[in-house]
Amino acid sequence: MKATATANSNIALVKYWGKRNNELNLPNNSSISMSLNKLYTTTTVEFSNGIKTDSLIIDGKKASKEEIERTSKHLSIVRKLARKEIFARVESKNNFPKSAGLASSASGFAALSLAATKALDLHLDRKELSILARQGSGSASRSIEGGFVEWVKGSLEDGSDSYAKAIAPNDHWPELTMIVAVLTKKEKKTGSNAGMEKTPATSPFYKCWLDTVEQDLEKTKKAILEKNFSLLGKTAEMNCLKMHSTMLTTEPHLIYWEPETIKVIKEVLSLREQGTECYFTIDAGPQVKVLCMKKNSEKIKKYFSAMKEVKEIFVCTAGEGAKLTEKDLF
Ligand code: 2P0
Fold first, then answer.
1. SS3 call for 290
2. Counting atoms of ligand 1 from 1, which one is nearest the CA of 193?
């Protein structure tokens, strides 16, 4: 009744922002992401008859009450599937800062879903795992599959048609690189969950977001399949700015950027003006992710490493989907 899984984080090229169902994490719009091979979570789950409650350690420390409750809620879905009333010891490790806009909930709930179902001997396929992971955190639905995926929003009330589908595998476009610049490791004040709830209800720009997202999805799928970097980069950057426009105009406002974020955005634009093609995308946090081609990645990495605002850098290509491992954390 013990299993360990690893899952890569993923970064959206077309973002998920706003839900039609908060309980099941059903989104208002479909989204597309790329799995990141260098950012991952490893999670060990052990169910045992001898314990009376779930416990959780993250990165060597006892998790907060909220984190334990969220994990326990997710484990209860797995218990129900397995028809077992049994608690678990869970330990999880990220190789990157958590809750700072690097999608640790995506890799975290994907790894937890795979490890917990394996530990209780449930054999879910990728679609079922994606549906399960989505209930822990929406973006986790996209971390089950590797490479490039589309999380289709679906329309059914029970969420059985809202899961991530593969667009292309991780070896489809090896030149495509995402450089993650970590600017601050502070945990954010407003989590995505709370933020996302307020935007659809208060931002006057949210309608515009929904009106244009289908075009962004089409352009992004085409760009991935045809390996058209300019189309991909332009669409992803604009999609990110549109999402942040809805965040900025949410009441109370959601400003996830820090001064360092603007500094890096300006540097990306300046590099592009000088002929090095690169584009930025930013999530619900201050970190900037830079899309570029492999031939320019070393130069861009050096450029950003020299900035005092940049604390850590990960140069990523498309990673694999969630997988089981023998390397238990305890
Ligand atoms: C995304 N984000 O598509 C968007 C862009 C943040 C900005 O998915 O409430 O942690 O757990 O479903 O998945 C972050 O949201 O939110 C996210 P929940 P989640 O990557």
1. strand
2. 9
- Write the CB contacts of 61 (distance below 8 Å, at least 6 apart in sequence): none
Question: Secondary structure of the chain: what % helix, strand, coil (to 5)?
Answer: 40, 25, 35
- Find the radius of gyration of the CA atoms of the chain: 19
Helices (H) and strands (E) in the chain, counts: 8, 14
**Highest CATH level, class, for 2-172:** alpha beta
CATH superfamily, region 176-316: GHMP kinase, C-terminal domain (3.30.70.890)
Ordered alpha helix ranges (H), 152-293: 192-202, 206-226, 229-248, 259-273
Around ligand 1, the residues with Cβ closer than 6 Å are 12, 15-17, 25, 31, 103, 105, 137-139, 192-193, 196, 283-284
- Please tell me the distance between residue 103's alpha carbon and the centre of ligand 1 in angstroms: 7
Residue nearest to ligand 1 atom 7, measured at CA: 283
Tell which one of 9, 16, 281 to mutate to probe ligand 1, the residue whose CB is within 8 A of the most ligand atoms.
16
Instruction: Output the CA 104–ligand 1 centroid distance in Å.
Output: 10
Give the Å distance between the CA of 94 and the centre of ligand 1.
17
Q: Which residues 6+ apart lie within 8 Å of 47 measured at CB?
A: 1, 2, 84, 86, 87, 88, 116, 119, 120
Listed by start position, the domains of the chain span 2-172, 176-316
User: What is the 119 CA–ligand 1 centroid distance (Å)?
Assistant: 27
Does the structure show a pLDDT above 90 at 195? Answer: no
Q: Residue 4 Cα, ligand 1 centroid: separation in angstroms? A: 24
pLDDT band of residue 216 (cuts 50, 70, 90) is very high
Q: pLDDT tens-digit profile of 245-300?
A: 999 999 999 999 999 999 999 999 999 999 999 999 999 999 999 999 999 999 99
Q: Which atom of ligand 1 is nearest to the CA of 191?
A: 10
Q: Which residues contact 116 (CB under 8 A, 6 or more apart)?
A: 3, 45, 47, 74, 75, 78, 88
Residue owning tokens 């498309």: 318
Model confidence pTM above 0.85: yes
